[in-house]
Design a protein that fits this description.
134 residues; 44% helix; Nucleotidyltransferase, domain 5; 5-stranded mixed β-sheet
Length: 134
């Protein structure tokens, strides 16, 4: 009887060493990858030289004028309404891209606000339109 009991007791022990090894590896992976995911908005901005990013015809056009007002195509809206309408348009086309047209004298914060809200809403294809130098 004691032999059976000893065998049952040894089977019920939990081996902690493999679990600690796995947790250490996971901790190291998360410590390395987390800073890479929080660097901000990933953009491949074009040079403002002789070539320009003009966007395609299928992109949503969002504009920020010199006064910081937001426009979706030609309709003046609040920044939250612009994002809501862009999300609704994405429902019809999941591969939808967005082109932001910022006035030369527009507040940098206004442009970054709309970009940040779009990125938080799940848009991955957001670009800035530029014009060529003469």
């Amino acid at each position: 009887m004691s032999r059976l009991r000893r065998r049952r007791d040894s089977d019920s022990l939990i081996q902690l060493t493999p679990m600690i090894d796995v947790m250490t590896v996971l901790l190291a992976v998360f410590m390395v990858t987390t800073p890479m995911m929080t660097n901000g908005i990933d953009l491949d901005l074009p040079s403002a030289g002789h070539s320009a990013l003009t966007g395609n015809d299928h992109a949503i056009q969002i504009s920020v004028d010199a006064n910081g007002a937001y426009y979706l195509n030609e309709m003046k809206l609040d920044v939250d309404d612009v994002v809501k309408r862009a999300i609704a348009m994405r429902g019809e086309n999941p591969q939808l891209s967005i082109m932001i047209n910022g006035d030369k004298h527009a507040d940098y914060g206004a442009v970054m606000t709309v970009m940040g809200k779009l990125k938080d809403s799940g848009f991955q294809r957001v670009g800035l339109r530029t014009k060529t130098e003469k």
